[in-house]
TrEMBL record:
It comes from Mycetocola tolaasinivorans. General (non sugar-specific) component of the phosphoenolpyruvate-dependent sugar phosphotransferase system (sugar PTS). This major carbohydrate active-transport system catalyzes the phosphorylation of incoming sugar substrates concomitantly with their translocation across the cell membrane. Enzyme I transfers the phosphoryl group from phosphoenolpyruvate (PEP) to the phosphoryl carrier protein (HPr). GO terms for molecular function: kinase activity; metal ion binding; phosphoenolpyruvate-protein phosphotransferase activity. It is found in: Cytoplasm. This is Phosphoenolpyruvate-protein phosphotransferase. One of its GO terms (cellular component) is cytoplasm.
Amino acid sequence: LGRRRSKVPIGPGTLADDTPIPLMANLTAAAEAPRARELGAEGVGLLRTELLFLDAETAPSIAEQVEHYRGIFEEFPGRRVIVRTLDAGADKPLAFLPARSDEPNPALGARGLRAFREDNTILRNQLRALAIAADATSAEVRVMAPMVADAAETAGFVLLARELGLRTAGVMAEVPSAALLAAQILGIADFISIGTNDLTQYTLAADRQLGALADYQDPWHPAVLRLIRMIGDAGGQSGKPVGVCGEAAADPLLAVVLVGLGVTSLSMTPEALADVRTELRQHTLEHARLLATRALAASTPAEARQVMLDG
Ligand code: PEP
Ligand code: MG
């Protein structure tokens, strides 16, 4: 199967054998929604919510949050919108969270879900606001937590989300422990979404913000692919969805490998949707699986990429 670059009309993500692979948008604000829809996003696979909180001196009230989220949900009537709860930490400090500037290693600090271990008021209020906003629109709203390490943390988050009125709750797999424990996690969560940016950073132990180590930040690395395979296998066994919402999903050739590893939907910057849609339509699921198996056997990111270039 070649990779002819024919112009593919806007439409749902599918493989050459018609297997659906929903293609979703990563968003941060309602203003980005029209462009995402224009480019054919089938929903939102990652709504980052930090923006609403970053400039605030005090935590936004539940009412303020409801208004904000509702504005975004209304842009996607009847569509799936996956909201990530606040991913704050020393890298994205919030004025109203206790200062974390004393953390020697922010990437390994109290970020993501870990920021709420002592006091989860902000998380509770956010989930409540999301539940109210979800009930007020026809969007199919799901929530997921960042930086989840294991099944116990998954259970804590999923139960809290349900208690506060959200029907569908999942977690991000962006810490290697979550990939290793994906089967246990999917025994509890409704879905998993792989954050390849952080998963790569933590697998290779290279700070993603450090330019000198930028070449380690490569999701084609066979070690990262092997962790993704574990998550994909757990998804296949549980029958639950496995998404990717990191930058890897926006690389058309890597997108094929991800599908071959068991990923069932992809979320990306809307500008990347067309190229990924085009590439996926060149491959059957069987072919994607074959390519993924070959990429897994590579010993360097370049070798893994070469598998796709060779077709
Ligand atoms: C990721 O880590 O891949 C991800 C999607 O989250 P962020 O880039 O916001 O950390
Ligand atoms: Mg992340």
